[in-house]
Design brief:
Elements lengths: L2 H14 L26 E6 L4 H10 L4 E7 L3 H9 L5 E3 L2 H7 L6 E4 L6 H10 L3 E4 L7 H14 L3 E3 L7 H11 L6 E8 L26 H5 L26 H18 L6 E6 L1 H4 L2 H6 L5 E8 L8 E8 L6 H4 L10 E7 L2 E6 L6 E3 L1 H4 L12 H9 L9 H19 L5 E2 L32
Length: 460
Amino acid sequence: MNQENHNSAVSRRKFLQSAAAVAIVPSFLMQSLASAKIPGKKLRHACIGVGGMGAYDLGNFKTHPDVEIVAICDVDSDALKRAAEGLPGVRTYTDWRELLKKEANNIDSVNVSVPDHNHFAVAYTAIKNGKHVYCQKPLCHDVAEVRSLTKAAVKAGVMTQLGTQIASSSCDRTAVQLLKDGAIGKIKHIYLCSNRPGIESVRMEGPRPEGNQDAPANLNWELWTGTAPLRPFAANTYHPAKWRTWQDFGTGWSGDIGCHIFDAVWKGIGLKAPLSVIAEVQQSWKNSAPRKGDTWPQGDHMTWVFPGNSYTEKDKVTLEWFDGEFYPPEEIRKLYTPGEYPVESAMLIGTEGAMLIPHGGEKPVLLPEAKFKDKQVNKIEARNHYHHYVNACLGGEKTESHFAQSGPMTEAILLGTVAIRVPDQLLQWDAANMKFPNYPAANKYLRRTYRRGWEIKGEF
């Protein structure tokens, strides 16, 4: 790992240890988000997925004094064994369905830390059984799943939290408040980017390897595949991390990291469902039928148009996303004078200046620096994203990244992944009816057909 990557990783770990943000709840949802108190002092919790990010999630839940980890689940027996070693007496499962059935009366809450394609199935089943849910980002694999899960969570009145840990950093919390306070005036345009060095290690070009391979003895491949088509196992291709490359399992780089970088912007200026979205993609991917049909490209530039509001200059506001080989315009990057333009960040252009929110950074930066050098910024302290969720489940202050808040944001982000699959085509979005009226051919990408035996009857 080079020094730049090392410093970025250290910074990210530092801010992943802090959590949740200023509560911004749409007024029409307030009554639906009534606190769900749990009797007793302990939150009886189950961790579904304990490898990779799941191990990090488990570690954070363990640090809350009022959490009792009752059960854990993972399709990888090696990951399950490692997690169980630090939890004397914990009950272990390979199949999350068995866990939710057998532990129905023993748990109050679950966290969902599995690949994207199984998020909805696990989280929805838990919610329908009255369990509080912490779910890793993105909330779901498909737009229709997000809509259904959001409705189910609001209806059930359970506590929820999206795994956007950076939303709870001092930087993002302060940025939200600055935007709400109008620090840079009315918003004119927004530029988001994630051009992280070394990302090629988890972004494969494809196509899928030929032939059949046996999954290792520690991995239950059928359960790992879950709702997706049952593909032949291939080493160093899917498990444990490269699944994000594949349309069957992941949501591409924008789907994965987008939830982090959208978050403060979405909350700070109160964005709602977009009016349209269009995507420009890596040319080599667009020209390759096998890659286009199976993987996500290694570079995207997406443009959303959102309805304007009291925080925007006009009745519409444009937001652009750049990753891989696509970068924000040079004139925008030059606005950031303190140093090299942060590779993962949000830049908002306002009528009175600009603000850059560095992903995992120390603080938002108001630009030009000379204009704002004497401005007093009230820094909002970080808090633990996981602990805030636990406290909410136990009857404390409600979470800020609850699904009623983060669900609509995830929908908007995943509309971008739909646009990727029909590049260069402007898609007009009818949010109320959940369809693209000007290009019906794209509607098929809003929801998947689950593999036989894994169907979930959601409120689609």
